[in-house]
Amino acid sequence: MNVSCECQNVVFKTPLAKPLALYICHCNECKRQSSSAFGASAIFPRFPLPCPEFLAVYTRPTASGHTVNCYFCKTCGTRLIHSTPGKSVVSVKGGCIEGLDWKMAKHIWVKRAMVPIPEGAEVVKEEPDFDPYICRTTDLLENGKMDAGAA
């Protein structure tokens, strides 16, 4: 999948043809960083940072007590990637990705939602369990479906 910031200084492809998961997040942090009612995050196996010369990082604590590194374009300020130290997955901001299948999205932190959740959507009241995606990344590596350098 193709990913780019607004000014096109940061352009890259995701390590998989589709994300392991897609979240529409209604937490306060995502609302602030997106300047909207929610944020969109596509979960992928960890990969080397693209275009590091064009990226800056903002590090902040999460509601669950972890630390997250938020990478954004130094030129236009577009938030692109979030990573948590020690985790084998990263979050690529959904609005920067071409061709996402939004039907697969799960709404999380819905207890803080400012907009109605679509009827029939899968929801999680707070933070989801990332363990299934960490296991999926391990399976992809072991079966040769992903480059070990990406993890």
TrEMBL record:
Single GO molecular function: carbon-sulfur lyase activity
Matches recorded under InterPro entries: CENP-V/GFA (IPR006913), Mss4-like_sf (IPR011057)
Superkingdom of source: Eukaryota
Pfam families linked: GFA
Domain CENP-V/GFA intervals: 1-103
Keyword annotations: Lyase, Metal-binding, Zinc
Signal peptide limits: none
UniProt family annotation: Belongs to the Gfa family.
Protein name, entry field: CENP-V/GFA domain-containing protein
Provenance organism: Botrytis byssoidea
